[in-house]
């Protein structure tokens, strides 16, 4: 017997519960699509098409984090700019002639890579390298969510139109 709605049998209650769950699922999908719309097209499309998904450990809220990143400095580009914060997927789309090995089913290729220590960055990238410098700066929540996939490394999923270059400066430049 149903105490909440005595006029409904158990099947009627089950039907209502299933409908409510479906409505909640639709609502969650709408919220998810709205959130995905904040990202560059290449990541947004991969998320919406189910090609990739964010890790469960994704942090949408976090305090500012001091971090380091490799940036490019050449004669024609003497300072840090937005192009230093493109993901591998965005770089490949923008410059298809660059020979990058990319797995477009791996969410990490859609993120910007940062390190918590300069030593971890140097170990990973065999620094110094020609035309490269190390930038030091602050990752901020308004840049986008992060995924700390180990103790030293951070993946930042930049929001569309976001330019973190103002928060970074070259701290080590080997020519």
Secondary-structure blueprint of this entry?
Blueprint: H1 10-36, H2 41-48, E1 65-72, H3 88-94, E2 112-115, H4 118-125, E3 132-139, E4 146-147, E5 153-156, E6 168-173
Antiparallel strand pairs: 1-3, 2-5, 3-6, 4-5
Largest sheet: 3 strands, antiparallel
Q: How many extended strands?
A: 6
Give helix and strand order, one letter per element, not per position. HHEHEHEEEE
Report the span from N to C terminus.
Answer: 80 Å
Q: Percent of residues in helical segments? A: 25-40%
Gross morphology: elongated
Q: Beta-strand percentage? A: 15-25%
- Derived from helix and strand composition plus strand pairing, the structural class reads alpha+beta
Number of distinct helices: 4
* Spans where pLDDT lies below 50 across 5 or more residues: none
The whole-number mean of residue pLDDT values reads: 84
- The domain tally reads 2
Protein described:
The protein is α+β, with helices and mostly antiparallel strands. It has 2 domains: 10-48, no CATH class; 65-173, no CATH class. It is 29% helix and 18% strand. The chain has 4 helices and 6 strands, in the order ααβαβαββββ. A hairpin with a 5-residue loop joins strand 4 and strand 5 (153-156).
A few lines on this structure:
With 175 residues, the protein is of the alpha+beta class.
